[in-house]
Design brief:
about 35% helix; Peroxisomal Thiolase, Chain A, domain 1; eleven-stranded mixed sheet; 13 helices; two-stranded antiparallel sheet; globular; alpha/beta; about 425 residues; single chain
């Protein structure tokens, strides 16, 4: 399709999804575990945690990169990149999108990542200290930087369109999906591979968040450690993995007979301009972000049925997100179904928005809202319907997915059930 033939303000749909998460490898395994309320959180196995205050995380299990990559590449590629490549392979196969010489320059890649190859940075620092700078790998720099995820995806899958990486902390995956949506909407691409990826279950990451008193220390009961909106929450749990979506212009998706999970209809961004790590009082910045997404979608607040909350299990985030929801939705806030899937996956940081966008699309497609687990004693200030401890069968027409990051950066997506209108 020639550029001049592309209309502006195109409709954009999700035609494929891929997941690598602490709950499983692939859409079906992950979604089944999520709706069953299973936890992917356990003791850290990557390094000796005996001297750490927090010894738990949401590690990806049974992931074999050679199942998705040539063996030579699988051995040397950084984990966060491998996760994104595996999730992309699953998403492209799911969508049936074929990238070839006829469309390669109209298919782009845009992913989010918070910290990139932190484990490689730690390893390389040790090598320099012990053996000198002449012994480090020539792949150190290119394999560490976050934008190598979309770079390698483009190389492996031949996507020559817009290519970028977003590094907005815990909002990165959602920003990536929203930006990809806008790229297609304005006619700069016909399809985008998008989402988020992260793998930083490393000593410096755990020690750093522990120093901030941000992590749960419920080491004796890891599956119960992430408990968003619960009175006894004591911090978040670091997770890892990747969630990738294939976004396409609706007309082209219909033309090739693609199945459609949901339509992307709204995207909001805002900044708190308040504090490095704490959210703005009352969730003011988050509220403006949700309002921006609703305005972009051209709908009213009362049309939203479900919110996949940021829901980190920290005292301040859960309280302020609840306050923000009440500020935006008023009385309708009490009629919304809200769930925090981080209660089962942990917090994937820059990758969180990617898997949660997939979860939101699946909730719409399947008519099933995943639960907020470990919500045994709701915090007094968190008094909304958080779908506690059991998935709920419910039709979802419009859904909102929230992500809020350090630095006061906020991102919200609105997805819609696909109809024939």
């Amino acid at each position: 399709m020639k550029e001049k033939e592309v209309s502006l303000n195109r409709r954009v749909v999700i035609t494929g999804v891929g997941l690598v998460t602490p709950l499983g490898i692939g859409r079906d395994e992950t979604w089944s575990a999520l709706c069953a309320g299973k936890s992917g959180i356990g003791e850290i196995t990557r390094f000796d945690t005996s001297c750490f205050e927090t010894r738990i995380a949401g590690e990806v299990k049974n992931f074999h990169p050679e199942d998705f990559l040539p063996k030579k590449e699988a051995r040397r590629i950084e984990r966060f990149i491998a996760y994104s490549l595996a999730a992309t392979r699953m998403a492209t196969e799911d969508s049936g999108l074929v990238i070839n010489s006829s469309n390669a320059d109209r298919v782009g890649v845009l992913t989010g990542c918070g910290l990139g190859g932190l484990s490689l940075l730690e390893l390389t620092t040790r090598i320099i200290d012990q053996k000198g700078p002449g012994r480090i790998s020539p792949f150190f720099i290119p394999m560490m930087i976050g934008n190598m995820a979309p770079g390698m995806i483009a190389i492996y899958f031949g996507a020559k369109g817009p290519n970028a990486s977003v590094a907005t902390a815990c909002a990165a995956g959602t920003h990536a999906v929203g930006d990809a949506f806008k790229i297609i909407q304005r006619g700069s691409a016909d399809a985008m591979i998008t989402g988020g990826t992260e793998s930083v279950i490393t000593p410096t990451c755990i020690a750093g968040f522990s120093a901030m008193k941000a992590l749960s220390t419920r080491n004796d009961d890891p599956e119960k450690a992430s408990r968003p909106f619960d009175r006894d929450r004591d911090g978040f749990v670091v997770g890892e993995g990747s969630g990738i979506l294939i976004l396409e212009a609706l007309d082209l998706a219909l033309e090739r007979g693609a199945k459609i999970y949901a339509e992307v209809v709204g995207y909001g961004m805002s900044g708190d301009a308040y504090h490095m790590t704490a959210p703005a009082p009352g969730g003011e910045g988050a509220a403006r972000c949700m309002q921006a997404a609703i305005k972009d979608a051209g709908i009213s607040e009362t049309e939203i049925d479900y919110i996949n909350a940021h829901g980190t299990s920290t005292q301040m985030n859960d309280q302020y997100e609840t306050m923000a929801i009440k500020s935006v939705f008023k009385d309708h806030a009490y009629r919304l179904a809200i769930s925090a899937t981080k209660s089962m996956t942990g917090h994937l940081l820059g990758g969180g928005g990617g898997i949660e966008a997939v979860f939101t699309a699946l909730a719409i497609q399947q008519g099933m809202i995943p639960p907020t687990m470990n919500l045994d004693n709701p915090s007094p200030e968190c008094d909304l319907d958080y779908v506690p401890n059991q998935a709920r069968k419910q039709n979802v027409t419009y859904a909102l997915s929230n992500s809020f990051g350090f630095g006061g950066t906020n991102a919200c997506l609105i997805l819609k059930q696909m109809t024939n209108d």
